[in-house]
Amino acid sequence: MTYEGALSEPEDFPKSEEPVWILGKKYSTQTELEPLRNDVQSRIWLTYRRNFAQISDTTFTSDRGWGCMLRCGQMVLAEALLRRHLGRDWIWTPAESSDTYLRIMSMFEDHKCATFSLHIISQLGVDEGKPIGEWYGPNTVAQVMRKLTPFDEWNNFSVNVAMDNVVIMDEIRCSCQIEGERIWRPLLLFIPLRLGLSEMNPIYFSGLKNCFKMPQSLGLIGGKPNHASYFIGFMGDELVYLDPHTTQEAGSIAKKLTEEEVELDKSYHISCAQRMPFEHLDPSLALCFFCGSEKEFDDLCNRMRQELIDAEKTPLFELVPTRPDYMKDDSSFEGASGINVEFEDHQLDSDDDEEFEVLQ
Predict the structure, then answer these.
(1) What is the predicted pLDDT for the residue at 2?
(2) Torsion on CA atoms 213, 76, 140, 319, rounded to nearest 10
(3) 291 is a catalytic site residue
């Protein structure tokens, strides 16, 4: 494999009195280092791949240099699938070969028949004005993921993208309820934000930390301009993240019956996450949450109200029970799941490509 990240070797967690939070779980590096490492390794790590079938009618057989944000979006989806089918306490081992795990992994293979493949994501991006091979920002990836999931009948996700820094509870709730049935469609919630103009405003650091502490957290996608990463937690004043900037061979783990398939499966798990200071985070990002039941959604809303809204002088976003009057005439937004959302990307001073209301 080839590593293109900022560090030649991933750093492990130093022993400290500071706890580490990983997607709603708290660890001590002094007494729980091994469980912490196992938890990180159990996340599905999706990176650049090479030598896959060309994408559509292009000559691309690798996404090196342009696919990092798409890989981060895939990692969020993969985490949602793990949460839905295997639970937050599931731990990966090299011997893992359950039908459920293998089915999840098959959905991210690099060919046009895989549900959440780079090939299909890239093609949906074309429909939104993003040529194949062009870098995506977090808002664009969230919108493409929303359009991708209706093709996935197995999981029946309701994907919601909260626009304009507003989370509308009743619209999200309606999108997750099947009419005439008392069934909750699992919720995958993206909240795209811009927390500053060209640099992160430190006033939002505590709010971001509180997000990682919530059991519904799927982390956040963002990073540096044109250098995306999947952030899964924090330790002190440093973010913990999975870096997709490693180029590996494409392939299928199939049923994990051969040594080659077993080795390929290992390439989707990394034992050491990386860390970086909060202030290095690009202000353009998207928070991600998963609620497998209505009870979990109610709990998430209560936590957001108490820990992100009431407890913060400058909240990350608004949480409202119904659509505010000033948004009711917004023709670019139809429903919480964003069925007809229109969005426009343009260049900003930070070289990012997202258009948001700037939070100062």
Answers:
(1) 53
(2) -30
(3) no
Q: What is the pTM of this model?
A: 0.90
- What does the pLDDT average to over 241-264? 97
Q: Which of 63, 72, 245, 352 is catalytic?
A: 245
pLDDT tens for 272-318 read 899 999 999 999 999 999 999 999 999 999 999 999 999 999 999 99
Residue type, 313: K
Per DSSP, what are the bridge partners of residue 178?
A: none
**In this structure, which amino acid lies at residue 142?**
A
Given the residues 39, 68, 72, 119, select the one marked as catalytic: 68
**Angle, CA 219 vertex, CA 135 and CA 335 arms, to 5°:** 75
pLDDT at position 44 is 98
CA neighbor of 27 nearest in space, from 281, 240, 312: 240
CB 137 within 8 A of CB 353: yes
Please tell me the distance from the alpha carbon of residue 142 to that of residue 247, in angstroms, as a whole number.
Answer: 23
What token pair was written down for 206? Answer: 């505590």
Q: Which two tokens stand for residue 122?
A: 């890239």
**203 Cβ contact partners less than 8 Å away, ≥ 6 residues apart:** 313, 314
For β-strands 227-235 and 217-224, DSSP reports them as antiparallel
Instruction: Provide the 10 A C-beta neighbour count for residue 168.
Output: 23
Q: Is 269 a catalytic residue?
A: no
- Asked if 76 contacts 230 with a C-beta cutoff of 8 angstroms, the reply is yes
Q: What is the pLDDT of residue 350?
A: 41
Give the max Cα distance, the chain: 60
Tell me how crowded residue 291 is: count the other CB atoms within 10 A of its CB.
24
Q: What b/e readout covers 242-278, taking b as 16+ CB neighbours within 10 angstroms? A: bbbbbbbebbebeebeeeebeebbebbbbeebbbbeb
243: annotated active-site residue: yes
- Measured CA to CA, the distance from residue 330 to residue 310 in angstroms comes to 27
Residue in 243, 265, 282, 353 annotated catalytic: 243
For residues 104 and 78, the answer to whether their CB atoms sit within 8 Å is yes
